[in-house]
Amino acid sequence: MATAGGIPAETGRGYAGDWAGFTAWCESTGRRALPATGDTLTEYMTHLKGQDKSPATMDRALASIAVAHAAAEFPKPPTTGARRVLKGHETERKKSKDPRRGTRRAAAATPPVLRKMVAATDTATAIGRRDVAALLLGFALAARRCELRLLDWADIEEVEEGLAVEVWRAKVNHTGPLGVPYGSNPATCPVRALRAWRQCLLDHGRQAVGPLFLRIQRHGRIAHPMHRYGQPIGDPTGRITGEGPGPPPAPT
């Protein structure tokens, strides 16, 4: 299934998996997936409810079906009945008060964990400097990967107290930049880490403009061109995807 432009890669993969699940169910039940009817969506939500899928998973399944219809230039199928099933399932889950059925949240990184992640990263490499800068800056800003990847050089200014960062956040209104102070420990200071990454970019001949966090291949080439079947892929500016920076692999 082709997803619309602007959808994050992680969400796009989730939509594709949801659409595959829906089409497989339609084939097994003799229903038509595209275009789907409102009754089909209601029955599919009832099927997912029977499997005790989470309301979030069911809601995303409806979104994936809508995206598939839009991509195929079909009108969005009616969702009134499907939404009733979803709402009823959500209410039942809340009333059950079963902690195993509650919303699961990823555990936030703590300073000790952050220090271990930084210590395990080779900052002698460009990838290491980038990842440490992204980890520490993201921690200081409580920023998501999708927010970090959108940062440009112009969005961050060094000030006397540390950094002034303009972060774009969906559904959040705030005026003015966010402040990031110097850290008490130089090894985990976001200001120093970002300065080291910026200097690394300059040392590699990059200009102080455009995306701040860039993709790097395993041989150290920064913002390298990428091709698939002879066609260019990836952001032409070299900007990372949401999966760009990440913690180092666990030792084995």
Put the structure in a nutshell.
With 252 residues, this protein is mainly α. The chain has 8 helices and 5 strands.
Report on the architecture of this protein:
By secondary structure, this protein is mainly α. Helix content is 44%, strand content 7%. It is built from 8 helices and 5 strands. It has helices spanning 9-29, 38-50, 55-71, 80-96, 111-119, 126-141, 145-149, 190-203, and strands at residues 156-159, 162-165, 178-181, 226-228, 231-233. The model is unreliable at 1-8, 99-104 and 247-252 (pLDDT under 50).
Indicate the low-confidence ranges by residue numbers. Answer: 1-8, 99-104, 247-252
Tell me the number of helical segments per DSSP (H or I, 4 or more residues long): 8
Say how many strands there are.
5
Q: Strand order within the widest sheet?
A: 1-2-3
Q: Give the integer mean of the pLDDT values.
A: 83
What gap, in angstroms, lies between the N and C termini? 37 Å
Instruction: Please trace the helix and strand order, writing H or E for each element.
Output: HHHHHHHEEEHEE
Q: Strand portion, in percent?
A: 5-15%
Shape: elongated
Determine the fraction of residues in helical runs and give it as a percent range: 40-55%
* Rounded Rg: 22 Å
